[in-house]
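hiii so um. not sure if this is the right channel but i have a protein structure encoded as tokens and i wanna go backwards to a sequence. like what aa goes where. can anyone help
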């Protein structure tokens, strides 16, 4: 049997990262109130755990946030705005914008490229939201042969992480 009175702050901090107060209480056969009291006495903040979970994007805390975001993206999707946001993120904000700024692409060229890319993204999204996976697979199966000799894609998730941290930090400061 685990000894609740002998638990160290480090042990409780580690448990606090992995499970709820109710689970800890059950594990040590004590009340939830005792867990909350000891956590508070040892300076182990529940909000601290929540922020750590959110930053690490894991744990029980993150589940409802991920479910909410998934619902927001998948239920009644705004294909127009999703396509434009993806275009801005994946195409416009970066090398293409630098080329435009250096005068290598005119404003008319930039507009034509943005419209083309956004329309293509909207097409993929419409097919995905309609569940027409066979058509998407066939299209990608064709195009992958045209891109077979390209360098391997390296997933760039820096901006996802930076924006997440920026918004989390703003939320935390409230």
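sure thing!! here u go:
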């Amino acid at each position: 049997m685990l000894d609740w009175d002998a638990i160290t702050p480090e042990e409780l901090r580690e448990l606090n990262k992995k499970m709820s107060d109710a689970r800890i209480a059950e594990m040590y056969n004590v009340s939830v109130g005792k867990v909350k009291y000891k956590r508070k006495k040892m300076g182990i903040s529940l909000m601290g755990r929540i922020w750590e979970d959110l930053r690490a994007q894991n744990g029980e805390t993150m589940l409802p946030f991920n479910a909410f975001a998934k619902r927001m993206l998948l239920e009644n999707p705004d294909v127009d705005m999703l396509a434009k946001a993806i275009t801005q993120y994946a195409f416009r904000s970066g090398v293409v914008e630098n080329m435009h700024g250096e005068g290598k692409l005119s404003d008319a060229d930039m507009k034509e490229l943005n419209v083309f890319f956004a329309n293509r993204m909207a097409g993929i999204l419409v097919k995905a939201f309609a569940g027409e996976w066979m058509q998407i697979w066939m299209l990608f199966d064709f195009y992958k042969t045209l891109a077979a000799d390209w360098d391997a894609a390296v997933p760039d998730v820096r901006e996802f992480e930076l924006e997440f941290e920026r918004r989390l930090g703003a939320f935390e400061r409230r």
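oh and Residues 77-172 form one domain.
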